[in-house]
């Protein structure tokens, strides 16, 4: 990264955002960023759709929207957290969708950052000259693969306090953040209400129309049990008319821990969904005549104490990513951060000292839901960055077991 900064600074005569906007044929660029609707697990539009069926539909929509021959894709990386059969499902779904047998597939899992890690893995392979075109996909069915928490640990691990904390419930980590850093219930409800209100406004205004691709999935008739195809076109977890006052009436989800300030209203919903990002060199994109949405600049990953895993995003990983790019928080036009819990959302915004009107401007996981593999941030962020004619997007997320990740993207002007 230092070498990249030196070259860009020399060619542009400056550093910062100007250097990042320098266009090289070797840039790793994004030519497609799409997502499915996000649907409430066990209740929403995808409740009867298996993980492999969501993968299949995402691959089909990718081939349809990418504007390239699928045989040109040199590698596919799929982010998935919960499915124990993900490696089988991803390869089979890609073949069934129309990718040739010559296109390899891998699966990556770093919990909530798995979608960003898939993008990073493909981007790094392109940067290293190993491939020219690659596809990063994120898919999660929490309906078919519920998150049952950490596994039982061997006593060889659990005797270590930090190791034991890795298996603790995420609600416990939310309460730890709230108590350790003084994030009140009132403050959490206020941030959560803002997420719902922004998402409601964005959905009603049609802001998501360019990033969402309709998904045809099977839904089960509750009377007969028969499955029939249904077209799902929009997010179904946004609760219209949500206010801080209405959220304040919801009882504590974890009264046994901390201040008991985390509730079903100020924490992310459990959700099903998918997203797809097509990456290649700028040289290849220009050769194929494709529109370039943005380039991937860098990804930073950090570790934090597991008991307060929420502080990994973005208060620690974002500064690391910005330092890699030689830019400051003031240079960033939009932040898309994972709202796993309002406690860490509020903490992160305050700690970074960034204006709330730059963060999750169309709502976040509290309103849409959190498919565990937080892949939608890039598609949503790039769509909004283009709408606002902004330059720099940062996406970030906290990660179970105590980590954080952030990615930096620059829109083509």
UniProtKB/TrEMBL annotation:
NCBIfam families: AcCoA-C-Actrans. GO terms for molecular function: acetyl-CoA C-acyltransferase activity. The lineage of its organism: Eukaryota, Fungi, Dikarya, Basidiomycota, Agaricomycotina. Residues 28-282 form the Thiolase N-terminal domain. Pathway: Lipid metabolism; fatty acid metabolism. This is Thiolase. Belongs to the thiolase-like superfamily. Thiolase family. Residues 291-409 form the Thiolase C-terminal domain. The active site is at 112 (acyl-thioester intermediate), 370 (proton acceptor), 398 (proton acceptor). It comes from Gymnopus androsaceus JB14. Keywords: Acyltransferase, Transferase. It catalyses: an acyl-CoA + acetyl-CoA = a 3-oxoacyl-CoA + CoA. It comes from the Eukaryota. GO terms for biological process: fatty acid beta-oxidation; phenylacetate catabolic process.
């Amino acid at each position: 990264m230092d070498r990249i900064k030196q070259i860009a600074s020399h060619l542009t005569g400056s550093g910062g955002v100007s250097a990042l906007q320098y266009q090289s044929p070797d840039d790793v660029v994004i030519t497609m960023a799409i997502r499915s609707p996000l649907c409430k697990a066990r209740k929403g539009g995808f409740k009867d759709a298996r993980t492999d069926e969501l993968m299949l539909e995402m691959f089909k929509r990718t081939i349809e929207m990418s504007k390239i021959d699928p045989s040109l894709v040199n590698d596919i990386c799929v982010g998935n957290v919960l499915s124990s059969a993900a490696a089988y499902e991803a390869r089979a779904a890609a073949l069934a969708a129309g990718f040739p047998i010559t296109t390899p597939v891998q699966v990556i899992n770093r919990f909530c950052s798995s979608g960003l890690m898939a993008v990073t893995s493909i981007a790094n392979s392109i940067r290293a000259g190993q491939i020219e075109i690659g596809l990063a996909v994120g898919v999660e069915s929490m309906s078919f693969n519920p998150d049952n928490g950490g596994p039982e640990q061997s006593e060889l691990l659990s005797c270590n306090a930090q190791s034991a904390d890795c298996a603790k419930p995420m609600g416990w980590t939310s309460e730890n953040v709230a108590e350790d850093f003084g994030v009140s219930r009132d403050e959490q409800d206020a941030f959560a209400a803002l997420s719902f209100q922004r998402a409601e406004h964005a959905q009603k205004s049609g802001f998501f129309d360019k990033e969402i691709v309709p998904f045809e999935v099977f839904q089960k008739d509750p009377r007969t049990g028969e499955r029939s195809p249904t077209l799902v076109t929009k997010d179904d977890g946004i609760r219209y008319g949500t206010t801080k006052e209405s959220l304040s009436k919801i009882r504590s989800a974890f009264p046994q821990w901390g201040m008991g300030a985390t509730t079903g209203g100020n924490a992310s919903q459990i959700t099903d969904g998918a997203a797809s990002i097509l990456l290649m060199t700028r040289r290849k994109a220009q050769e194929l005549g494709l529109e370039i949405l943005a380039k991937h600049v860098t990804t930073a990953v950090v570790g934090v104490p597991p008991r307060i895993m929420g502080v990994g995003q973005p208060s620690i990983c974002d500064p690391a990513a910005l330092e890699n790019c030689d830019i400051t928080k003031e240079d960033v036009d939009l932040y898309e951060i994972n709202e796993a819990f309002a406690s860490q959302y509020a903490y992160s915004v305050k700690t970074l000292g960034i204006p709330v009107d730059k963060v999750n401007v169309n709502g976040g996981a509290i309103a849409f839901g959190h498919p565990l593999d937080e892949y939608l941030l890039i598609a949503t962020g790039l769509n909004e960055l283009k709408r606002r004619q902004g330059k720099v997007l940062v996406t970030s997320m906290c990660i179970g077991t105590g980590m954080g990740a952030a990615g930096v993207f620059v829109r083509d002007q």
